[in-house]
Amino acid sequence: MSGAQRQMNLGVFVETTGRHVAGWRHEGVDPLAPLDVGHYRQVIGIAERGLFDLFFLADGLAIRDRSAERLGRGPKAHFEPLTLLSALSMVSRHIGLVATASTTFNEPFHIARKFASLDFLSGGRAGWNIVTSSSPAEAENFGNGRLPPPEERYRRAAEFVEAVRGLWDSWDDDAIVADRDSGIYFRPDGLHALHHHGEFFDIRGPLNIARPPQGHPLLVQAGSSSAGIGLGARVGEIIYTAQTTLENAKSFYARLKGLAREEGRQPESLRILPGLFPIVGRSRDEAREKFDYLQSLIHPEVGLAQLEHHLGGVDLSGYPVDGPLPEDALPGEGADSRSGLLRHIARRDSLSIRDLYLQVSIARGHPVLTGTAADIADYMVAWFQEGGADGFNIMPGWLPGGLGDFVDLVVPELQRRGLFRTEYRGSTTREIMGLARPVSRYGRLNE
Ligand SMILES: Cc1cc2nc3c(=O)[nH]c(=O)nc-3n(C[C@H](O)[C@H](O)[C@H](O)COP(=O)(O)O)c2cc1C
C-alpha cells in the first residue's frame, strides 16, 4: 500500500432480509428469502459489483429473541452460515466470506477444519468471526445449559483461537508432494501434531486438511468489553464495532490500535470497521421517504417488545402506544443506564411509546444515516480520515435493495474521491485487503 492513497475497506453485514426489524415486509423483499440460496446469490453478486472486501453472516445458536418466538413476527428460520458460505463460494470470486462461530459451544478441531475447508473451497477467502456467545438461550441448547461467566468465556476463547491457529499450521505449505513415481504423497517431516494441553482443551492433532491458502483464514472480532477488546487486540485482523459518535469511535480506535501495538503488532494489521446502517436516496427527500416507509412497517407488538427489552424487561402492554411512557412502569432511577437514558429522552422530547420504539428498533446500537450519496460519503470520509475507522461494515436495512442503493450511489462517490478501489487486485482476501499471510509456527519454508 506504500505510496498509494490509503483506501477504505467495506464489508456487508447480511442478515437474511436486512438489518431492519421489518425489512422482510418491504415491498421489494421476498419474505421467504431467508431460506432461498438464490437470494444470497443475488446479494453477494451486488456486493462484488460494489467491490466489497467482505460478506459477513452473523449467527447465534438459538432463536435468541424470545419475544419473536412468542409473537411469530420475524424471519427467525435461516441457514447455518458456514454451509451457506460454502455454497456461495461457488458463485463468487473475490469477496471475503466471513461466518460467525462460537468458541463457547464448539471444539477447536471442528472450527479449524471447517474454516480451512471454506478457505480451500473459496480460493483463500474465508474469515472467522470469533464470538463467545452471550445469550442464555444459546446455553440452553448445549450441555448442562449453563452459560459460563464472561471472564471464563474469554479465557476459553483465547485458548481456543491459539489451538485453532496451531491446527492450521499442521501441514507445512509444501508438505504435499503427491509423487506417483516414488509413491510418496506427503513428507512426514512436513506434518506436525499440535500436542496442545491447556485449561480447556487437550488436542493431539494434526488437522486432516492441508494448510489453508491464506495460511490462516482471517480472524474477525467484535468484542466491546475489556476482555473482548483484549482478544481483538491480540488476534483480531478485522474488528467490528458499534459506535454512534465520531468522538467515541476515535477513542475506541486509538485504544485498540494502541493495545495491538503493545502486543507487538503493526496498527495496519487490524482493520476497524464500525457498523453503518445507510438509507440512500437521490435526494434527501427520497431518502427520508424510504426511511419513513421502513419505519411504517414495524408492527406495534414488535416495536413494543424491542422497547420493553431495552427498558430491562418492563411490561408496556396495557398502555396506549400513542400515549406517553408511563412513569410507574419504569425501573427506578439509575436502575440501568440504557433505560435511564431512554426515559430521559422520552421526557425531554415528549415522546410517545411509539416514537420511542421507532427510535430503538431501527438502530440497535449502530448509527442510521439517511441522505444522499454525498451526505453518506461525507460522514464516512470524516470517520476514515479523522482516526475513527479503517472502513465500514455496511448494514443494509432491507435486501437486496438497500445494498443495491449503496453500491449504485455511494460506492461511485467514494471512488470519485479516491477513497475506494475501482477494481479488485489480488486473489485471496488477505491479498485484496493488504493483510499479511501468517508464517507457520514451524518456521519458514525451505529453511
Ligand atoms: C457487528 C457485530 C456483529 C456481531 N456478530 C455477532 C454474532 O454473529 N454472534 C454473536 O453471538 N455475537 C455477535 N456480536 C457480539 C460480539 O461478539 C460481542 O459479544 C459484543 O459486542 C459484546 O462484547 P463482549 O463480548 O466483549 O461483552 C457482534 C457484534 C457486532 C458489533
Structure, briefly:
This protein is of the alpha/beta class and 447 residues long. It is built from 15 helices and 13 strands. Bound molecules: flavin mononucleotide.
Terminus-to-terminus distance? 28 Å
State the domain count: 2
Which sequence of SSEs, written as H and E, runs from N to C? EHEHHEHEHHEEEEEHEHEHHHHEHEHH
Helical fraction equals 25-40%
Mean pLDDT: 94
CATH C-level class of the largest domain: Alpha Beta
Remind me, CATH topology of the largest domain? TIM Barrel
Largest sheet composition: 8 strands, parallel, barrel
What is the 3D form?
Answer: globular
What Rg is obtained from the alpha carbons, in whole angstroms? Answer: 23 Å
How would you write the strand order of the largest sheet? Answer: 1-2-3-4-9-10-11-13
Instruction: Kindly report the name of the CATH homologous superfamily of the largest domain.
Output: Luciferase-like domain
Proportion of strand residues:
5-15%
Number of DSSP helical runs: 15
Protein name: FMN-dependent oxidoreductase (Nitrilotriacetate monooxygenase family)
GO molecular function: monooxygenase activity; oxidoreductase activity, acting on paired donors, with incorporation or reduction of molecular oxygen
Pfam families: Bac_luciferase (PF00296)
Family: Belongs to the NtaA/SnaA/DszA monooxygenase family.
Summarize this structure as a short list of keywords or feature phrases:
eight-stranded parallel beta barrel; alpha/beta; 15 helices; TIM Barrel; 39% helix; globular; binds flavin mononucleotide; 447 residues; two-stranded antiparallel sheet
